[in-house]
Design a protein that fits this description.
Layout lengths: L8 E3 L11 E6 L7 E5 L6 E2 L9 E3 L2 E2 L23 H5 E5 L2 H9 L9 E3 L9 H5 L2 H10 L4 E5 L8 H8 L4 E6 L5 H7 L6 H13 L5 E7 L7 H13 L4 E6 L4 H14 L4 H8 L7 H18 L28
Parallel strand pairs: 3-7, 5-8, 8-9, 9-10, 10-11, 11-12
Antiparallel strand pairs: 1-2, 2-3, 4-5, 6-7
């Protein structure tokens, strides 16, 4: 179903930092109260990734900023490049590349394009709520498929179900990897840490729908948040629900606190769980990652539970699409979750 929207405000004066991004206008609509969309015309759709050991060299980011509003999101610092802040602006000021599908189609038809795998969802979520208004993904999926380019999608957005017929059709022609991020089962923690995302139960139903369509779905249980989501009971419940939904495998790793995300998350922690601040100082010090000791302890907790629920091995796709649907995403993709 197409979303109908009425523009309440359209401003043709670019915000600081957006002028160089091909700014067109800013829009607010009743369906997205509190959110402003900044529509831009991008010059390129494919982004070259400079990183050793990654399973992909190219990404597409249809939007910048994310209304999922995950307190722990590593991509928050990227909003500062546009002279927007990494806190509320990241959640509520969404930059939308309205011409991304058309630009992508041109780039994929260049002789220099070698049909390398492209990743979506490596920065902000392509199936966040704005996709319901702008419908960028069908054009992106179509362009990639027609050019013979395989791709992966990582999302928390249940809006992916809208495009399941397109994804299934694409998987008959090119390698397609689908992954869903589900890190929290507790309703109170979910509301506090990722208030703009679909519920964990809704995302489990997305996993089920993708698995029923024949995809070997990977679930990113990421990030695991020390002292809040790392208990045996929480992980056991979550892994059990993921397995029951039909996922093929799970990748799980502890939270990283990069750049501006560190301050944003620790401010939340100070308000909601002040007794944990001392423990976090011990776990993270002044760095980005938890201590090696905590990482080893967490692996020791996770691995037996993955074995228990059969989530530490790749599960084959259903026979009708087995030849077309690719294997589960490389766990390295989790570094960008």
């Amino acid at each position: 179903m197409r979303w109908q929207s009425q523009t309440l405000e359209a401003d043709d004066g670019a915000l600081p930092g957006l002028e160089r991004a091909g700014f067109v206008r800013s829009v607010q609509t009743p369906e997205f109260e509190g959110i402003t969309f900044h529509e831009v015309l991008c010059k390129s759709a494919l982004n070259k990734v400079n990183g050793d050991g990654l399973p992909f060299n190219w990404t597409i980011n249809p939007m910048r900023g994310c209304s999922h509003a995950c307190t722990y999101c590593f991509a928050r610092s990227t909003h500062e490049y546009l002279d927007l802040d990494a806190g509320n602006d990241f959640d509520n000021q969404i930059v939308v590349k309205t011409n991304v599908a058309a630009v992508l189609r041109r780039e994929l038809h260049k002789r220099s394009w070698h049909r390398e795998t492209v990743a979506l969802g490596s920065n902000t979520d392509p199936y966040q709520r704005a996709e319901g208004r702008y419908r960028l993904m069908p054009g992106i999926i179509g362009a990639l498929t027609e050019s013979g380019t395989g791709f992966s999608v990582l999302t928390k957005g249940t809006l992916m179900r809208r495009d399941l017929p397109l994804l299934t059709q694409a998987a008959r022609q090119v390698p397609v990897h689908l992954a869903v991020s589900i890190a929290i089962m507790d309703p109170e923690l979910h509301a506090g840490l990722e208030s703009g995302t679909p519920s964990p139960r809704a995302r489990l139903e997305l996993v089920r729908a993708l698995a029923d369509a024949g995809f070997a779905v990977n679930v990113m249980v990421a990030p695991i948040i020390p002292c809040l989501t790392d208990t045996r009971a929480h992980l056991d419940e979550l892994f059990g629900a993921i397995a029951e939904a039909g996922a093929a495998s799970v990748v799980a790793f502890p939270m990283h606190l990069r750049g501006s995300t560190r301050g944003w998350f620790l401010n939340w922690l100070a308000e909601q769980h002040p007794a944990l601040l001392r423990r976090y100082r011990q776990l993270y010090g002044r760095g980005t990652s938890v201590t090696p000791e905590y990482s080893a302890w967490l692996r020791g907790r996770i691995e037996p539970l993955l074995e228990k629920h059969g989530l530490n091995r790749e599960r084959q796709a259903e026979p009708e699409v087995r030849a077309a649907v690719s294997h589960t995403p490389d766990p390295q993709l989790a570094l960008f979750a």
